[in-house]
Every structure is written in C-alpha cells, then in structure tokens.
C-alpha cells in the first residue's frame, strides 16, 4: 500500500478546508420590522347628522266638496292653475234654491202681517179685562196668540236665512289659496252633498312639509347623549335640514326642523319627524319620496378615525390596530357610530393620542414589532369640525 500516506494527507486537507470555510461564514441578520402608516388621533368637535327617508306633504290641502245637491252648470277654473280664497270654481243649478228662498220670504211676510192683528187683539182684551168685559181666559188666549205670532216671525226669518245660505252654496268657491288639481266632475253631472269623491283638490305648496321617520332607539340615544352633555344643539345651524331629491341632486334651499311626533308607531317602532321647506318654484310635489339630512347636534371631544384603519374580525366586530409606546401592534375592539366623510366617529375603543395604523395592515399580527411612519395615502384628520351622516 505505497500510496496510503498520500491519501491520508489529501483527506486531512479536505477536512481542514471545510472547517476553515465553516469558520468564515457570517451569521444572518434578522429582517427589519415592517413599516406601517399611522395617524395620531386627536379629539375634536364634529357636527352629527343623519339621513332619513321621507315624503313631501303640502302645507295646506283642501278638498272641494258640494254643500248642496244639484247639476253642475259651469266650471270656472283651469286645471292646474293657482286659485285664490273665495274664487268661484263651480256653479250649481240654482233655480230650485231661488224658489225656496222666495217661498221662505213669503212665509216671513205672512208671519209679520199676523203679528199686528194678534197684538191689537191682545191689547183690546187687556182693556176689556180691566172693566170685566171679557174673561181672564179670553185675555190670556189673545196674549198667547200674539206671542206665537212673534215666534212665528223669528222662525220664518231663520228659514229665509237657511234658504239664502243654500242659494249661496250653489256657487262653490275656493276655501284656500293654492294650486288646484284636475276636476273630478264635468259640467252636467250631478253633485250631491256627502258624496265620497271631492270635486277637486287644492294644495298650498309655496311651503311644504317633509315627514320622515326615525327609529325610537336612535332618538333615545340622541336624547340621552344630549342630557349627558356629549352632544349639544347650540347655534343657528342646529335645526337645519337638507333634502336629497329622487334624481340624486340636493334641493338648493335648506329647511327647518319643526317637531317630532309624541307617539311611537307600534307597527314599525319609529317616530315621525316633520321639517318645513320653502317651495317658491314648486319643485317639491306632494307625495314625492325624498331623503332628508337632519343635523342632530355637535359632539364635543369626538374621535374621528380614518375608515382605512377600522376593520372587522371573524365575528364581525369592528377592530383597530394601534402602535403602542414600544412600537408593537395592539388590537382594539371599537364602537363606531356614523360616518363623517371618509372617517368614522368612534365612541369607544380609541382615545386621543393613539397611533392608529391605516396602512400596512395586511398580514399584521398583535404583538408584532413595527416601524411607524407617516401614511402615504391617508391624510390625518384635521381639527376642523366636519359634517357627518349615518348610513341609514
């Protein structure tokens, strides 16, 4: 085995080289903490509002109905036009009512003529009674006849007044000023007192009401917050209402909150709220479906969190990731109330000074070390008051 020493030398060299190579390797560096975009939260005042569905209603509505029965002889208005209080709308055939008035006037004249004769007889019987020329019964009868004649005159005068009123009712006039709709009766048709259908409908629409419904639970939350002082209604804008029309545009004139109903609808659990809007151009029509934006009040010391920083866990709860003092991720369960632009009003779970993570949330875990930086896409909320709306 002459070559064995050389083989051992070669093996030793290989082993020495391997050991040297292993000793020369450097330990691998740990990856740097992931960068996250954060927003430092601050408390501020914010104006809260809510969007509610509603219907437009005319300020005044009057159904034109006949007070006496008769044939319609004339219609004296244009459908869809503006009519004024006292304007003549329909003329009912008045011949029967003129005849009735004449009869009542004749009966009144007859009763008035009877008064004089009965009174003269009562006076004569009074003088004869003094000299025992007539009995007491005859004198009493004469006096009673005179009184009955006077009562008859009063009754006939009332009959004349009733006949004159009925004659006036043959001219059907507008009870209010407003826009009149289509006529539901034609000339020559019979109009009857107590009929189910009106002749026409007049609506005053220079100012309209919008009736919206809000859940009783939301109203209780608002009132309790106002009692606690966290929401106030100070200032001239506290009662402002904006209107979103069916075509998606905003009505150019703001309305005012009028009142809320004193009872809760048992079938829906909601309360009716009424707002009034000027309607000079007649753009708002009764029965129109709209959405009203009601200003609820101003919340003091509110926390506004960018919506990018609020996510949901597996149970559907709202959660937020914040960076603590050691730059570690901490998960918080939060309660959101309503949206204010691109932010949420947070009522619990976050406080002023918290560093909310708004970027880099993907694959982030609680307790993980991170490197906070300014966000690239999300702008920190300003200290100015914002206007909020609910997702109703």
TrEMBL record:
Residues 301-361 form the Multidrug resistance protein MdtA-like C-terminal permuted SH3 domain. Residues 369-392 are annotated as: Disordered. It is found in: Cell envelope. Transmembrane segments: none annotated. Residues 102-170 form the Multidrug resistance protein MdtA-like alpha-helical hairpin domain. InterPro entries: MdtA-like_b-barrel, MdtA-like_BSH, MdtA-like_C, MdtA-like_HH, RND_pump_MFP. Residues 61-203 form the Multidrug resistance protein MdtA-like barrel-sandwich hybrid domain. Its main location: other. Residues 208-297 form the Multidrug resistance protein MdtA-like beta-barrel domain. Pfam families: Beta-barrel_RND, BSH_RND, HH_MFP_RND, RND-MFP_C. Belongs to the membrane fusion protein (MFP) (TC 8.A.1) family. This is Efflux RND transporter periplasmic adaptor subunit. It comes from Sphingomonas abietis. The lineage of its organism: Bacteria, Pseudomonadati, Pseudomonadota, Alphaproteobacteria, Sphingomonadales.
